[in-house]
Amino acid sequence: MAGTSTALPFALPASQSDILRRRAGILTRLLLLDEGFAQVPVRSMRQDTLDALLRLYDKAFLSGYLSRTYAELKITLSSRMTSAAGKFIYSRDAAKRLSGAEIRMSSDFLFRLKEGPFDLNGLTVSTAQEAFLVVFEHELCHAIETALFGSSGHSKRFLSIAFSLFGHTQIHHALPTVRSEAAQKGVFPGAKVSFLYQGKRLSGVVSSVGKTAAVMVPSLMGAYRGRFCRRYDKYRVPIDHLTIEKGL
Ligand SMILES: [Zn+2]
Predict the structure, then answer these.
(1) Distance 135 CA to ligand 1 centre (A)
(2) Sign of the CA dihedral 184, 189, 193, 199?
(3) Out of 137-141, 148-152, 168-172, which region has the weakest mean confidence (pLDDT)?
(4) Could you tell me the distance, in angstroms and rounded to a whole number, from the CA of residue 226 to the centre of ligand 1?
């Protein structure tokens, strides 16, 4: 890592094959620990497996740097996170020390992964479980950069850390999030759609996409007011229940 290597409190892997070997070692341990995590597609992941994931990475790649630096670094699996596969969140206490740090991983994303290969962060991996680790590694780099330098983003410095530690060459990934899957089916904000509601077919426009799509349907007594004083009702509809309307 140009300019920073002398200051690092842990030894960097010697080569790409060294990285692969360490990652594979961690993956093997996790698969043995948790039957739900070992299934294809992944069915579940226990909290103690997540804790083991963090501990094993800290030991295998960081010589325990994270446990020495963060009073508490949590790792959680969130079913509500649908726009990102992972996230690093932290706050500082009154003395400006790092506190309340958390790596939050999306279970929606994990359970959605089916057949590989998956391209992410410049790597190609073959299984959902390995993809999950590589996403986790990206968030881990945010935690490391924050601990080392006080802040983190997607700068050259970040890429240098992510490459040196994990062989990542990019920060973007092309994995199926609920939004990209919905977009492929033609469901995105502004799309005209229809759906069955209590036996009637309603037509409207998609206003947002998360786990379900929010659809604004014109209605005389609607609770929402739009342009030209038109009124709308908002419906939350599962993506699969929507029909794309063309030429409305
Ligand atoms: Zn990032």
Answers:
(1) 9
(2) positive
(3) 168-172
(4) 36
